[in-house]
Amino acid sequence: MVSMKKLDLSKTAYVAIDIQKGIMDSHQMSPYTNEEILSASNRLANLFKNTDSLIVLVNVDGTTFSYLHPSRIERSEETPMPKIYTEFSMNIAKDESAKNVIQITKHNPGAFFGTDLDLQLRRRGIDTIILSGVSTSNGVYATALDAFQYGYKLYIVEDATADRDTEIHNLFFKKLYPKLGTVIELSEVLELRIDD
């Protein structure tokens, strides 16, 4: 079990990747269900709400994402992506009482490239990221890899992260994520003592 008791919240961000309606309502995740991932994400956000930490909700704009590799992705000019696709699924996205939440829209797999995420974190003196979301092998991994390369201390919450393929999820958590940061469980994060 990893000790997170000494975590400095003023230097910590919880980053939730792609917990948005267009993904959560149309793709079944595993090994955890969409409902389990959403519940875990909401619990993490509630834990950090209105503390010295920062909560970062990241979504992907599917319309611009399709231009990343136009030869590989078929897109229809006649059917634009509905706006609801990018709408956040987490409760805290609409919680006006939450004062420590920012939203980042990405146009690539990772949340750093092409956004101001790194700038937002560094301006606040953040050096530690607690990361979760979907999918294990795409958005979460690309963000984790960039966070590692930028020098952030990284915790990836295994049971608050999922993929469309259980085998791939397990492979990433067994072989790849331990090279980038510390793999933890939701229960370990929830044990943190949050002092107001």
Can you put this structure into words, describing what you see?
The chain has a 6-stranded parallel β-sheet with strand order 3-2-1-4-5-6. The chain is built from 7 helices and 6 strands; from the N terminus they run βααβαβαβαβαβα. Helix 6 (166-180) links the parallel strand 5 (153-162) and strand 6 (182-184). By secondary structure, it is α/β, with parallel strands linked by helices.
Task: Please give a handful of descriptors for the protein shown.
196 residues; 6 strands
Spatial extent as radius of gyration: 16 Å
Determine the N-to-C terminus distance.
25 Å
Beta strand %: 15-25%
Low-confidence stretches: none
Could you outline the blueprint of secondary structure elements for this entry?
Layout: E1 12-17, H1 21-24, H2 34-48, E2 54-60, H3 62-65, E3 101-106, H4 117-123, E4 128-134, H5 139-149, E5 153-162, H6 166-180, E6 182-184, H7 186-190
Parallel strand pairs: 1-2, 1-4, 2-3, 4-5, 5-6
A few lines on this structure:
The chain is α/β, with parallel strands linked by helices and 196 residues long. The protein has seven helices and six strands; from the N terminus they run βααβαβαβαβαβα.
